[in-house]
Amino acid sequence: MQQTFGNNIPTAQVLWISKALKPTVEKILQHQMGFLRVRYWQQDTTSVWILEEIGKTKPITIGVVVQAEKIADIKVLAFRESRGWEIKHEFFTNQFKGLYLTPDLHLNTPIDGISGATLSVRAMTKISQLALLFAQQLSISK
Amino acid sequence: MSLWRWITKLHRLVGLFSAIILLMLAITGIALNHTETLKLDSKFIHSTPILDWYGIQVPTTSLNFSSSKYYISQLNNELYFQNKFLKHSSEKLIGLVETANYLAIGLEDSLLLITFTGEIIEQISMPNLSNIGYNSQQQIVLQQAQAVLFSSDDLLTWQLQTMNSQVKWSLATPLSAAQQQLLLQNFRNRILPLERFILDLHSGRLFGNFGVIIVDLSGIALILLTLSGCSVWIRQKLKRNQYRKK
User: Fold this and answer.
1) Where are the domains of chain A?
2) How far apart are CA A5 and CA B17, in angstroms?
3) For residue A120, which of A55, B18, B44, B79 is within the disulfide window of CB 3.0 to 4.6 Å?
4) Is A100 exposed, middle or buried (0-12, 13-18, 19+ CB in 10 A)?
């Protein structure tokens, strides 16, 4: 958070997932949504999202910084699985930077996978799509 | 008895003997091939005789907290809301507070917010929690390590609570005998996934070593059937060719 906002970390806010938004969220997640609202921190066009998605059996906590509807940074905050930890490294996360959401809800560039970490890669890709979708919602609501 | 006649008889007997097991192997094999589509890993066996057969035991006690209308329980690593499974949680349950809009469930390292119908609203990371309660303004209060915190803005920020005497902490309360029995039954009904049962049926492990040997024998029977079947077919073909030449 400090890396993104410096010492002036904005107050947390919540985005409620409306009934209209729910099918889109579930389309990205490919399973039922396990939450009704998400927490975010926003300053100007930059927003930070901390989201969780199951890799194989345990949730992976990932922080995504979205700037002007493009991913500015993405980091694994907590990895609880025994395999697939390679997604924590910058050689992998760097490929998300600058990506945006296409109208069909995909990232504009496909993500190169890591053998043995398929499910973790999938979880990180879903979270990046979700963060971009939620950031879009903030722009729409304005 | 000639060798060929003996092989034909063996083929028939082995076929009859192994038909039931092969049928069972085929059906369970097809089911296991489509575990995700059939959602076998998220369906559970409820049959008491089968659960007894597996020797499945449940803990005799649970950790429970209640508000005026609602109660939450923890058994092993599972949380139950009104006796219905809510979610897995390795964090220890520390309390329950009811607000006008939602229920706040205190866990060791987080605060879980749910609706009155048991839908998860949000799980907020809050490390080292030991107590949850509410103050005289009906605001949620948390004890985090040595600090006592309260929130006045829908849990977005936390401030130090100075008048600790005004806090009413959530305390563990036992369930009634009927509720406890229902909880244990519901917990027991979530232990054995259908996938595990079908897998054990497929490998024969459901019946212990005896079952494994029977499934192994049916495998050997299938090899014998293939060999005897091929030899019978080859012999008939040779005979037919000889007859045509004559």
Assistant:
1) 2-141
2) 74
3) A55
4) middle
How much is the pLDDT for B72? Answer: 95
- 3-class SS of residue B127: coil
Same domain as B179, residue B94 = yes
Q: Are residues B209 and B123 in the same domain?
A: no
Q: Tens digits of per-residue pLDDT, B190-223?
A: 889 999 999 999 988 888 889 889 888 888 888 8
Which of B120, B123, B156 has the CB atom closest to A13's CB atom? B156
The sheet carrying B84-88 orders its strands as: B63-66, B71-75, B78-81, B84-88
Which among A118, A33, A34, A128 is positioned nearest to A81, based on CA atoms?
A118
Residue-level pLDDT at A8:
82
Q: Which of B114, B156, B159 to mutate to test the interface with A (most CBs of A within 10 A)?
A: B156
Beta bridge partners of B111: B106, B124
Q: What is the DSSP letter of A101?
A: B
- A39, B124: Cβ pair inside 8 Å? yes
Specify the number of domains making up chain B: 2
**B30 and B128: one domain?**
no
Say whether pLDDT at B246 is over 80: no
pLDDT in tens, B106-117: 999 999 999 999
pLDDT digits (tens, 9 = 90+) for B122-141: 998 889 999 999 988 888 99
Q: What is the pTM of this model?
A: 0.75
B166 and B79 in a common domain: yes
C-alpha to C-alpha distances, A116 to A59, A95, B215, nearest whole angstrom: 17, 18, 33
Given this model, what pLDDT does residue B215 score?
Answer: 86
Intervals of chain A under pLDDT 50:
none
Are residues B159 and B71 part of one domain? yes
Q: Check B121 against A39: CB less than 8 A apart.
A: no
Would you mind telling me the total number of residues written for chain B in this entry? Answer: 246
Task: Suggest the residue from A39, A42, A52 to mutate for an interface test with chain B (most B CBs closer than 10 A).
Answer: A39
Q: Is residue B120 left, alpha or beta, with left meaning phi > 0 and alpha meaning psi from -120 to 50?
A: beta
Per-residue pLDDT, B165: 67
Domain containing B13 equals 3-54+193-245
CATH code at position B175: 2.130.10.10
